[in-house]
Amino acid sequence: MLPSEEILRSWAAASQLDDLALVLQTAGQSRRIDAERPLYPASMIKLPLAAAILCEVEAGRLHLDQRIRIQPGNMTANDAPSPLEPGYVATLDELIHRAIAYSDNVATNTLFDAVGRARATAIARERLGLPRTSFQRKLSGSDPLIHDPLWNGVDLNTHPAADAAHLLSAISRAEVPGSARLRSALGAQIWNDKLSAGLSAGDRFEHKTGETGSVCHDGGILTTASGLEVVVVLYTGAPSTDEQSARLAAFMRCLRPALAPVGA
To answer: Per-residue pLDDT tens for 34-44?
Structure first.
């Protein structure tokens, strides 16, 4: 039994999270708080982009072993060291893994070119069932923003918590092309200072984070030591700082003891 919305709101308040969108989902239940709120997704957009690429792989229009040369126009800052420099040749499979597990912005921008933003948006909405997800501009790791001549200068990427939870749930059920590959990349996540920091011993959290100077997010597939699987997505409309990350961890510490198999 998932906690009620009232209890979830009380835990959010106790964790000093007052500006959030939340989805909890198991095979038989869900809880949602402002799940469709249009908070900027930041790097959460990388998972549906990778999923769209894998749909194209399934259709035979792209291939995981195809080799792609990194272009100077896709360069931007990363928070972790990256081999992706102009002239480096990566496989599509490597780019997918780096975009998710390392949140690599250069890998992500290269994936934008591989599929095309209009095509990726159509796949997200028509194939993946993500009605409010769109790909509008490439990612920038710092100011100034990357030069992106295909961006209209107005519209931003969209991928609300509701869509993120839907995609993660579909991946958990192996309903997305390349679900095993995506779960592997999510499970190799190197950024673990948000919800991950509130987990219990023996838990596994296959997840993706997103952060900018205005938002701080985390979401993934939580598998408890007892075998219960729960999708947890928490978006917050506050700057990503150490303090805000600690608030997400505090929320997970409230939530985690309440998650138990039915009948336990």
So the answer is: 999 999 999 99
